[in-house]
Amino acid sequence: MTTQNGPLSFADIANRLDGEGIVWAVFAGAAAAAYGATRPLTDVDILVRASHGERLPRLFPGATVARRKDGVVKAVGLPGFDLVAGLHWRDDNGTYTLDLDARMAERLTRHEVSALNAPVIPPEDNILLKALWGRGPDVGKHDWEDVQAMMANLPNLDWEYLRWRAGACGPRQRTRQVVHQLETLWHQTRGASAGSV
User: 129 lies in which domain range?
Assistant: First the structure.
């Protein structure tokens, strides 16, 4: 989507979302960069509440709109930006949901992302998300690399919140396994003096 002056900037997108009272936050690779990953950003992923998805096409007319099988708006694509209405995905273990709910919203942090002071999802949510995805260079992704970088740069994590989120977002057996991997990585990365989990 472009304007008379070219593609929409991050500030343009933020202003439209804020003007509509839509709670939003940067997630995925751009959030990993805010929390210490050093890979170059190729785009900015923005999470909004699933319930706000239907408002996005009106806010960004002409954008590419992806819908779920039931017709509900899943995401809106703009040059350099993807706006996602709640995260829902499946793997061999089952279905996962990660939404920008009240608990996440109260924990948003602010960081400079692409020259804009932007809300960013909590590090615990981004670490869990990336660990659950677990995609590697074979598919052009760097999820565990980002997890390691975030953990190496963060002074602490709220493990109680991370465990709660893991239990709430998907199949327990899989999420417990991922939390255990994260706890192990935390100790390896930070050492025993970094605090208990």
Answer: 2-194
